[in-house]
Design a protein that fits this description.
With 143 residues, the chain is mainly α. The protein folds into 2 domains: 65 residues, Up-down Bundle (Butyryl-CoA Dehydrogenase, subunit A, domain 3); 52 residues, no CATH class.
Amino acid sequence: LKQVFNKDKTFRPKRKFEPGTQRFELHKRAQASLNSGVDLKAAVQLPSGEDQNDWVAVHVVDFFNRINLIYGTICEFCTERSCPVMSGGPKYEYRWQDDLKYKKPTALPAPQYMNLLMDWIEVQINNEDIFPTSVGKCKEEVL
């Protein structure tokens, strides 16, 4: 279990919303609606009077946190030896390109691909220009 929660591995701590902020309240509302067994379409519908960019940002961060937790539980079973290719079944192979270290699409073992992907997503979520922590300050062209 220590390996799953090792920050140097794939598990990352949840990005949290500051209590007392509007984003925190939106997060609580989203959690309550998702946990109440209501219709998913209604659960993700923009609440009246709320900013669409803030609502989307809350759900993006929550989705990342959930995927991160799920991946943290299975990552020990997918090693570079057992998962030498990042694929979506026999027909699809995913290749990594970031224009920094990997200038062209590069085949990588699944764990390495996932580590790069989760790191990249975390950088995007923590980028104040994309996901500002001040409510109502999202740049519409980015989302």
